[in-house]
Structure formats: structure tokens, C-alpha cells
Design a protein that fits this description.
heterotrimer, A alpha/beta (469), B alpha/beta (246), C mainly beta (294), A: 469 residues, alpha/beta, 13-stranded mixed β-sheet, 10-stranded mixed β-sheet, 13 helices, B: 246 residues, Rossmann fold, 6-stranded mixed β-sheet, 4-stranded antiparallel β-sheet, 12 strands
Chain lengths: 469, 246, 294
């Protein structure tokens, strides 16, 4: 019988350490108007926001769960803690961050990354941002990078927040968008003025520490015309027996001829329900580039959407999903071609092992007016054993004849020839397989900054070489 | 008698002008050679004369048998008797070579061609080119090798019998035997219809069997020298250099 | 009392795309299936009203479906080592068709479906490849124009070891035609060595068409090879110029390429009389036939 490499669960010790939170800081669990009012009170919302939250709650109560996708039956919404009172106010000096929170982020390498390669960093611990800082020269160029609450209370940005907040992803979009609208807390606001090209990335890191809690951060980025921004988002949480919920929301506005690159390495613990909504709208000649690695979570629903609203706008989605034991990761992308000569490219890889389920789901829609548009989709799936699942569910909806749309999907296993070839050059089977899988994920790793690519390759190697069978 | 007259032609792709005022006359029954370094505008000229929508004419005129064809679509030009052999013939899955050819012939001649007549002519032309009869039923250019594609182009030349054949690098990438076969096809075309030839090439092998009336050297989108057959030997000796520098 | 005919896709998805199913009302009483068995020559069937058939191994059946408001049910029972070929030419109105096929070990089924200009056709096809080394090959062509609507579901479930499926779909949509094609390859656990391939190639010639293409692969087995491809779009400008340079006018090139697209499917009918009839429905008169006969 052929010897197969046995693949163990990822070594999560890096992410699994945690600190106890004070019971006094948790708001009562559940989702009721009283809780929403309490959150709103706690955060000192303006009136429009309090009303928005209550209205979203009504929508949440009325909206059904989607009839497709992985089950969220294990999620007990009545017992999710939606808000955790912060231990400290937002800091711009790392030394002011409370010791245990500071240690958490230091173990995750966040301040070090900032010193080395980032233009600015934000760190959210449970419900609120605890740290936010941008380099002086970046701030002087007019770039705003702050937490969303501060921006909402700042007279310079308050109106901008009110006119953009949940306009791309309205609470009516789906049940968890409505929940987000009701209980959102934390997240970042980024504003890049016209003509400013930020050559080094900004990063936000989200850490959910409290057990049985939810994280509902909102990221709002406005990139004006002729500008450039690379934004990196990282997520992790330690593992608990109670399921956690992440229902964040990302809204991106990309101006004319601007490029926004949005990179995510998601490594939530494997009992997390990651029901995240991300959406970008792109003006004439602009570009949105999504780079997405999904490694963690118990269940994921994640399909970043690009709305190409201006002539010649372009969307690029590069993603990898690695579903291991106990994981059901439903990921993909949506593209709406809504203007002439728009173009899009989706390139995804997915890997299933140890009973994990990965589903690639996409929708490419070409509207009547999107004449001269082009789209290509390429998705490849790798099955590492026969107790796992890998599904591919793409839809193309084309409503003009003046478009060129292509789709290629492929599913299979690691080729014996490739393994043999590498072994003939002296590699043992396990290393050969690990190397082939890393190569398979190359589409994403080569799009990431070096240190993130290395982190991702480490994640893959850990998944692949846990033990030998 | 004058067949093709190009007058002060300027043309290009989008903003970029590739031909900067080219004039050229090809008479009936004559053989012309258009030579020049890579990127000189040789193919651009051929495609523009055929009416490719890829190139926009921004100035000048093209006349065929006295008629202004500058703005005519390609099929009208084909009906008038212009033929262009493509450097990279397009593959069309599902459309057989013979169905396509018969359709084109019926269009060009404006009358139905009986199946048996068609088959007879096709057989004869394929024999000249030493093409396997099975190619007639294969999809147009699909899975053809480079040499087979070139032969299929000459086959169309023999069947459509144009008054002017523009052969764009028909000899490039062919081995010695294939060049000989293609040359035999061109000779047969001259013998059967006495049509004119405008041969775009940088290889003189294909010209050996032909009597060249006139040679045009094109460089950077302009005709820089013209002469008789002797110019070809001159190019062979010393290259294009002296014709590219002002 | 009416019963309901329902297409349920193997994998539902985003609701707003409107591809998660189709429903039609059916008459309460469906005819008992006619068994087609033991014939040596191809069996020609005219479907002009509600009908049901069961086809057994060794048969070649050619169905001319020109009914209006009718339900057609066809079951293909390919036992071990047996072959069935089914050709279905749809050119009626408001036809609901349900095809089921069971393939045992080493069984082979070849399906050719052509959908022509019929308005509102709904076709649900479920193929069960339980048999080891069973082979399913299908060729599906459509040309839809006017206000016609076409909804096709093809679900190929591969449970048999080394089973092989291949589906080639080519179609043309014109005017205000609307079409949904859901093609699913479902590799079940245990289908070691199985392969499945599917392609859909759609040509759109008017700006008022709506095309929905849903190429799904479901996989619960490591040792399989599955591919899915789709291209949707317009005529290639280089193709048009090439043909035009040989003297064919653009309008005719469009017609020619549309017919060519279907020609790649029609040639798999394998029955000269039926192929001629289909070409005639496409408006191409066969002038050569008269010459050949004289």
C-alpha cells in the first residue's frame, strides 16, 4: 500500500495563549434592543448611529439565514457577548498599552513589524482598538489612519463617516450584515488624499481574546483619485470550547485611477465563525487588488465583492483557502462589472485535508452597460485525502454580447509524478509533498510582502508536516 | 495596366502611426517584393491594403483598378480580387476547410459552385501543394502545424484566384522542402491566373523561382529605396543598414 | 390537480443570481413509460404530447421533440457492459423534460441534445454513474433567439471507480434569449480513478441576451481528475477579419460561426437524415443533397 503522509493539526501554540478577562467588563450576552442601547451609550454614539444600530437590529430579527453554505447551527447567538468594555483608552504610545495586551501583540510580532516595514499600525483587542499609530511623514502627507469611533467624533471626518458607513454593505444585505450594523465596534478609518501614493503598507491586527465573544470591527477606507494604498489585515484568536463569532465589515472606496491593495491573512482559531463581509467600489480607471489567505476558523463565509462602477476599472482577486480537520471554509469572490471596459481576474487555490471542507463560490456579473468588459476566473483545488471535500460553485451572469468571459476550474490531487520527480532528486516524500503544496499556494505568497509570505508558508508547512504515518 | 495604387498612406494602431506616407504602384501581372527590417511596417502595409480593422488609416488613399477602396470592408476588397496570406492564420474550430473555401468561393464569384466541380478543383490544388486530402475535412487551421497552415493559405490562393496576392512572410519558419512546395503553389498561381504578387519577406529563397519586376525597401514606415531584382542581391550582400539611415 | 416539476441544483448559491431552481406545473396524470428494448436499428420517436420512455441497453433512440406544453420523461437503464445512445432534438414550446440515467459497470451512455428556438424549455438531467469504468459522454448544443428561455440542469454523479464523464456544451444566444446552464460533476467518495470534464462555450450576438453559466464541481474523493471550463463572449474580431479577407461579408460570417458552433454538436448525432433535418431547422438548405441524388 502506498504510504501517505499523515497530516496533523496545525501547531497553534503561537496563537492559543490568552489572558482572562474581567467578568465585569462583559456586557450581558445576547442581542436585544436593551443591549444595543447599552453599547451605544457606552460608546457615546451620535444619535444617527444609535438609530442606525436599532434599525439594523430590526432587520436582523426579520432576516433569514442563507439557504446555502455551511451550517452555523453551532453558533448560539443568544449567548454571544457582543461588546467587551475596554481596559484602556486608545493609545498612540505603545508603552501606554496595558501589559498583558501588549504582551499578546508582541508575541504575535505586531510592534516589531511596525518598526520594520509598516507606515502605520492599528491593533484591536476584543471590541476596541487599543493602539493606533502612523509614521510622522505619513501623517504629514494628509493620510488619516485612526479608529472609526474617533473619526466619527472628529468634526473633520464625521460627515464623511455618516455618508459612507454601511452604504456599500447595507444592513439589508444579509443577516450578519444586519447584526454588524447593530453591534459593530472598533475597526479602522483610513483616508488617502488625492495624489498621495503610500509606498509602504498600513496594517490592522484584530485579536479576539475573550471567550464566547464576538468581534464586529468596521473598516472604512476612502482612497481619493490618483492615489495608492496597501492595507494589511491580520486576525487571530486563541481556542476556546465556546464558539466565537467574527462578523466584521470592510468598505472600500477606490477613486479614479487609484489602486488599493487589501491583503488579509486570516488565522482565527478553529472554533470561530467567520462571517465577514468585504466590498469595494472602484471608480474610473481604478484598481482593487484583494490578496486573501484563509487558514483559520471553524466556519467561514467570505466573498469579497468588487463593484466596478467606472469605465476601465479593474479588480484582481488572489486567494488561498486551506481547510483542515473540523473546518468548513466557504470562500470566493464576487465581481460586478457595471461600466464599460472593466476587467477582472480571479485566481484561487484551495486545499482540503483531514476531513476539512473547502468551497470556492463566486459570482461574476456583467451588466448590460458593461460593454467591452473582460473577466477570467481560474480556480484550482487540491485534495490531500479522501475524507475531505472540495466544491467549486461559480456563477457567471452575462448580459451583454460585447464581453469576453472565461472560467477554468481544476480539481485533483498531488501528482505522483511530481512527488517521484522530487524524490528522485533526493527529497523524502513528506518534504516533497509539502514543497508541492507550498508551490501550489505560490499565487498568494508571491503577492504578499515578504514577512507575510513567510508566515503563510510556515502555516502551510506546519499543516503539512505535523507527523509521519 | 495599373492594379494597385497606394498614395501617401499613413496608418497605425490607436495613437501610434506606423506608416508615414507610403506610395506604391503594382501593375497587372507584375511581381513585387517588399523588404525591410523587423518592425519596418511591412505587415502593417499588407494588413492595411486588405482592410484590417486593427489598423486605422489616417491619411492617403488606396486604389484598386482605379476604384478608391480606402474605406471598404475586407470582404469587398476580396471580391475585387485582393488576397492576403496571413502570417498567423486564425484557427476556427467547427468550420471545415472545405466548407469554408466553398463558401468563400461562392461569395467571391457570386454564384453557386457545384459540389463535384468544387471537389475536383480542390483535389487538383491540394495535389500541387502535396496536401493530404484529409485536410479538407479538418477544422480550419485547427491543430495544423506551421507548415500546414502556410500550405492551407496557398491552397486558398489557388482556389480563390485573386488578381493581387499579398504574401506576408509566407516562407518564414518553413523547412527547405516546404519552401519548395509553397513556391510550386505560387508558380501554379502565376501560371493559372497570371495575377500580381506583392511578396513581403526577408528571405530570398522563395524568390528564386520568380521573376521579380520591382523591389521596395521599407524602413521605419517609409519607402526608402526602390529598384529592380538587382536590389535583392544588394540587400543580401550588405543588409538594410544603408537604407535605414538618412 | 397539478403536480410540480422542479429543478433543484446540486449546489445552491447566492439567491440574487436567480439560479437556485425552476418550477413548472405538470398534469396530474403522466403516461406510463413505453419501453424501448431489443431493437436492432435506431428507434425514431416523435414527441408531440406528454410521454414517458424507458430505454434499455443496446438501443439508439432519436427523439424529435416538437410538442407544446408537454412533459417528457426518459429513463436510460444501461446495465453492465451495455451501451445506449440517445439523441434529443428540442424544437417545441414549453416542454419540460426529465432525463435519468443509470450506468452499471462498464456501461456507456452517449447523449446528444440540441435545443433550437423553442420558447421556455426546461430540461433536468440526472446521470448516476454507479458502475465501475462506466462512461458518460454528452454533447449539448443550443441556439436560442426571440424571447425564448432555456433552463438546463445536468447533474453527473460519479460513484463508480474509474468512471469517466465528458460534457461538451456549445451554444448561441441571440436577440432577447435567456439561458441558464448548470453543469455539475459530483465525485462521490470511493470514485477512485474517476475523471470528469465539462466545457461550455457560449456565443452572444446581441446586447439584449442574458446568459447564466454555472459550472459546478463537487468532490469528496482524492484520486480524481476534474476540469471545468467556460467561455462566454462575442465573435473574435481577428476571426471576422480573416474570413472577411476571403470574401465573406460580416453578416454572413456571424451566421456561419453561429451555425459552426452548433455544427460541432450536430456532427455527433451520427444519423445523416436527422442531421439534415436539424440543419434545415437552422435554415441551412442542403443544396448538395439534390445534386448527390441526381
Amino acid at each position: 500500500m502506498k504510504q501517505k503522509t499523515q497530516v496533523a493539526d496545525i501547531d497553534r501554540s503561537l496563537y492559543d495563549f490568552r489572558y482572562e478577562e474581567d467578568a465585569a467588563d462583559l456586557l450581558a450576552s445576547g442581542i436585544t434592543p436593551a443591549i444595543i442601547r447599552e453599547i451605544s451609550e457606552e460608546k457615546g454614539d451620535p444619535e444617527w448611529m444609535r438609530n442606525f444600530r436599532l434599525h439594523s437590529l430590526e432587520i436582523f430579527a426579520k432576516t433569514e439565514m442563507p439557504p446555502w453554505g455551511p451550517s452555523v447551527a453551532g453558533l448560539d447567538l443568544d449567548n454571544i457577548v457582543t461588546y467587551i468594555r475596554p481596559k484602556s483608552r486608545m493609545n498612540t504610545d505603545w508603552n501606554d498599552v496595558p501589559e498583558n495586551i501588549k504582551e499578546t501583540f508582541e508575541r504575535l510580532g505586531i510592534p516589531q513589524a511596525e518598526r520594520e516595514s509598516l507606515a502605520g499600525v492599528g491593533a484591536q483587542y476584543d471590541s476596541e482598538l487599543v493602539y493606533h499609530n502612523v509614521r510622522k511623514e505619513v501623517a504629514e502627507s494628509g493620510v488619516v489612519y485612526t479608529d472609526l469611533e474617533s473619526a466619527m467624533h472628529d468634526p473633520r471626518y464625521a460627515e464623511m463617516i455618516r455618508t459612507h458607513f454601511m452604504k456599500l454593505v447595507p444592513p439589508t444585505d444579509h443577516k450578519f450584515a444586519a447584526l454588524h450594523g447593530a453591534v459593530w465596534s472598533g475597526g479602522s478609518f483610513v483616508y488617502v488624499p488625492a495624489g498621495v501614493r503610500l509606498e509602504i503598507p498600513l496594517q490592522s491586527y484584530f485579536r479576539l481574546n475573550a471567550k464566547g465573544a464576538g468581534q464586529f470591527e468596521h473598516t472604512l477606507i476612502i482612497v481619493e483619485d490618483d492615489a495608492y494604498l496597501h492595507f494589511i489585515e491580520g486576525c487571530s484568536a486563541p481556542k476556546y470550547y465556546e464558539a466565537g463569532l467574527h462578523a466584521g465589515c470592510v468598505e472600500l472606496y477606490v477613486g479614479k485611477r487609484s489602486t488599493l491593495r487589501y491583503s488579509t491573512i486570516e488565522n482565527w482559531s478553529k472554533n470561530m465563525y467567520n462571517l465577514n463581509t468585504k466590498r469595494a467600489v472602484v471608480a474610473e480607471g481604478g484598481r482593487i487588488e484583494w490578496v486573501s489567505g484563509s487558514f483559520g476558523s471553524h466556519v467561514s463565509y467570505l466573498y469579497p465583492m468588487s463593484i466596478l462602477n467606472g469605465r476601465g476599472a479593474h479588480a484582481e482577486f488572489t486567494g488561498i483557502t486551506f481547510a483542515g480537520k473540523g473546518q468548513n471554509l466557504d470562500t470566493g469572490a464576487k465581481i460586478l462589472h457595471n461600466a464599460p471596459e472593466t476587467s477582472s481576474h480571479i485566481d484561487t487555490k484551495s486545499i482540503s485535508k483531514g476531513g476539512g471542507i473547502s468551497t470556492f463560490r463566486s459570482a461574476v456579473t456583467v451588466a448590460e452597460k458593461a460593454i467591452g468588459s473582460r473577466s477570467s476566473v481560474s480556480c484550482e483545488s487540491l485534495m490531500l485525502d479522501s475524507i475531505s471535500r472540495s466544491d467549486t460553485v461559480p456563477v457567471m451572469d452575462i448580459r451583454t454580447d460585447k464581453a469576453d468571459i472565461g472560467h477554468e476550474a481544476k480539481i485533483g490531487r498531488i501528482s505522483d509524478d511530481a512527488v517521484f520527480y522530487l524524490m528522485s532528486r533526493g527529497l523524502d516524500e513528506q518534504s516533497a509533498r509539502a514543497m508541492i503544496v507550498s508551490g501550489f499556494a505560490d499565487n498568494v505568497s508571491k503577492e504578499l510582502p515578504l514577512e507575510y509570505a513567510m508566515e503563510m508558508n510556515n502555516l502551510i508547512r506546519l499543516e503539512m508536516t505535523g507527523s509521519i504515518g | 495596366m495599373e492594379l494597385l495604387r497606394i498614395e501617401q498612406l499613413t496608418a497605425g494602431i490607436e495613437e501610434k502611426e506606423l506608416l508615414h506616407g507610403v506610395s506604391l504602384i503594382v501593375g497587372s501581372g507584375e511581381t513585387h517584393v517588399l523588404m525591410g527590417p523587423n518592425g519596418a511596417g511591412k505587415s502593417t502595409l499588407g494588413y492595411t491594403v486588405m482592410g484590417s480593422p486593427e489598423y486605422q488609416v489616417t491619411g492617403g488613399k488606396i486604389y484598386f483598378e482605379g476604384a478608391d477602396i480606402t474605406d471598404e470592408p475586407a470582404d469587398r476588397r476580396a471580391k475585387r480580387g485582393i488576397f492576403l496570406s496571413f502570417q498567423n492564420p486564425i484557427e476556427i474550430p467547427g468550420l471545415s476547410l472545405s466548407d469554408f473555401l466553398r463558401n468563400a468561393m461562392e461569395q467571391v464569384t457570386g454564384q453557386r459552385i457545384k459540389l463535384w466541380d468544387f471537389k475536383k478543383q480542390l483535389r487538383a490544388a491540394m495535389d500541387v501543394l502535396q496536401m493530404d486530402a484529409a485536410y479538407a475535412d479538418r477544422d480550419l487551421n485547427v491543430g495544423f502545424s506551421g507548415g500546414e497552415k502556410k500550405k492551407a493559405e496557398i491552397l486558398q490562393l489557388l482556389m480563390l484566384k485573386p488578381k493581387l496576392a499579398i504574401l506576408d512572410e509566407t516562407d518564414s519558419g518553413l523547412d527547405v522542402d516546404a519552401v519548395r512546395t509553397v513556391s510550386a503553389g505560387i508558380a501554379a498561381y502565376r501560371a493559372q491566373c497570371g495575377g500580381s504578387l506583392l511578396i513581403i519577406t526577408h528571405n530570398t529563397k522563395i524568390l528564386e523561382a520568380l521573376e521579380v519586376d520591382r523591389t521596395h525597401i521599407i524602413a521605419e514606415g517609409r519607402i526608402t529605396a526602390e529598384g529592380g531584382a538587382e536590389l535583392i542581391a544588394e540587400i543580401n550582400r550588405s543588409g538594410f543598414e544603408k537604407y535605414t539611415e538618412k | 390537480m397539478a403536480t410540480t416539476f422542479r429543478i433543484q441544483p446540486a449546489a445552491p448559491t447566492f439567491r440574487w443570481l436567480g439560479v437556485n431552481g425552476t418550477e413548472r406545473n405538470l398534469p396530474a396524470q403522466l403516461p406510463a413509460p413505453v419501453r424501448i428494448s431489443g431493437q436492432t436499428a435506431a428507434v425514431r420517436v416523435n414527441v408531440s404530447a406528454d410521454a414517458a420512455y424507458t430505454v434499455t441497453g443496446g438501443q439508439t433512440v432519436i427523439m424529435d421533440i416538437h410538442a407544446a406544453q408537454a412533459y417528457l420523461q426518459t429513463h436510460l437503464q444501461a446495465d453492465a457492459g451495455e451501451k445506449i445512445k440517445l439523441v434529443q432534438i428540442f424544437h417545441g414550446d414549453a416542454v419540460c423534460s426529465r432525463l435519468t440515467a443509470d450506468l452499471d459497470d462498464l456501461a456507456e451512455v452517449e447523449l446528444v441534445q440540441i435545443y433550437l428556438r423553442g420558447s421556455d424549455t426546461v430540461s433536468d438531467n440526472a446521470v448516476n454513474m454507479d458502475g465501475r469504468k462506466s462512461v458518460f459522454t454528452s454533447y449539448i448544443g443550443y441556439l436560442q433567439d426571440g424571447d425564448s428561455q432555456l433552463d438546463i440542469n445536468l447533474n453527473v454523479v460519479q460513484r463508480g471507480k474509474k468512471s469517466a464523464s465528458a460534457t461538451d456544451v456549445r451554444g448561441v444566444l441571440r436577440e432577447r434569449a435567456q439561458k441558464v446552464f448548470r453543469g455539475t460533476i459530483d465525485f462521490q467518495q470511493g470514485a477512485a480513478g474517476a475523471s470528469g470534464a465539462e466545457r461550455e462555450d457560449v456565443l452572444l450576438t446581441d446586447e439584449t441576451v442574458i446568459n447564466k453559466t454555472v459550472p459546478v464541481i463537487l468532490c469528496a474523493e482524492e484520486d480524481v481528475a476534474g476540469t471545468h471550463g467556460a467561455t462566454v463572449g462575442q465573435l473574435d474580431a481577428r476571426e471576422i477579419f480573416y474570413l472577411q479577407s476571403r470574401g465573406i461579408p460580416e453578416a454572413q460570417i456571424r451566421e456561419l460561426i453561429a451555425q459552426t458552433k452548433l455544427g460541432g454538436i450536430i456532427r455527433h448525432i451520427g444519423d445523416a437524415e436527422t442531421e439534415r433535418a436539424v440543419w434545415k431547422l437552422l435554415g441551412r438548405e442542403d443544396a448538395d443533397a439534390a445534386e448527390l441524388e441526381s
